From TrEMBL:
The keyword Aminoacyl-tRNA synthetase does not apply. It comes from the Bacteria. GO terms for molecular function: ATP binding; ATP hydrolysis activity. The lineage of its organism: Bacteria, Bacillati, Bacillota, Bacilli, Lactobacillales. Keywords: ATP-binding, Nucleotide-binding. PANTHER family: ABC TRANSPORTER, ATP-BINDING PROTEIN, SKFA PEPTIDE EXPORT ATP-BINDING PROTEIN SKFE. Residues 34-111 form the ATPase AAA-type core domain. This is ABC transporter ATP-binding protein. Coiled coil: none annotated.
Length: 206
């Protein structure tokens, strides 16, 4: 599923569902109907008359209801408000529970999907920076905060992926085994997936 419109704009949503079912030979009509009601999508409206958000919803329903083993979702919640994005994540898990398969999701809303992911691939300029399970990444990434001098002594041997200074305090984003006996003025906390991504891909500003 992507932003591209692969169906003629004059087709009604219901007809798109029927064509998709015919192409794949199967379709989860029960889930499609449930999602249509939940998202308040009118199946008798043509695609061209739908807003960007509702076109995304129609395509999401088709993507989740086909019997394919691999589903690729490119920015799947484009045009959806917060409530509908949350509803989509709910139905993504519902579809997976009904028929386990591989979902490949590209998104900029990293923290929203963090709890759904088993494996993460971080790309920057076409280069793979990290490929690991979500759990491994979250266990590896830490942020250390404290006075600059104290932080400098602690981070020896650690891989620094980012650093910020504010009001005399330094925050350093690192990967590696954190020393057990930290100075009292240094704190450590895990990195969430979005912060990890931002620090790993952030470009230096001159």
């Amino acid at each position: 599923m992507s932003e591209d419109n692969l169906y003629p704009g004059n087709l009604k949503v219901k007809k798109c569902f029927q064509l998709t079912a015919a192409f794949y030979g199967s379709f989860d009509w029960d889930l499609a109907q449930e999602m249509t009601v939940a998202f308040e999508l009118n199946q008798n409206v043509s695609l061209r008359k739908l807003s960007t958000g509702y076109r995304s919803i129609a395509k999401l329903i088709m993507a989740l209801c086909v019997p394919a083993d691999y589903i690729f979702l490119d920015e799947p919640v484009l045009g959806l408000d917060a409530n509908y994005r949350d509803l989509f994540y709910h139905y993504l898990l519902t579809a997976y529970a009904k028929r386990p398969r591989t979902f490949v999701i590209s998104t900029h809303l990293i923290e929203e999907v963090a709890n759904l992911l088993e494996e993460v691939i971080i790309l920057d300029g076409g280069k793979v920076l990290r490929k690991a399970t979500t759990e491994d990444i979250q266990l590896a990434g830490k942020v250390l905060k404290g006075p600059k001098e104290a932080i400098a002594a602690v981070i020896k041997g650690l891989r620094v992926i980012g650093q910020e200074e504010l009001g005399g305090m330094t925050s350093v984003y690192v990967e590696g085994e954190i020393p057990k006996n930290l100075p009292l003025d240094v704190t450590v906390a895990p990195l969430n997936l979005q912060t990890y991504f931002v620090q790993l891909t952030k470009k230096d500003v001159a």
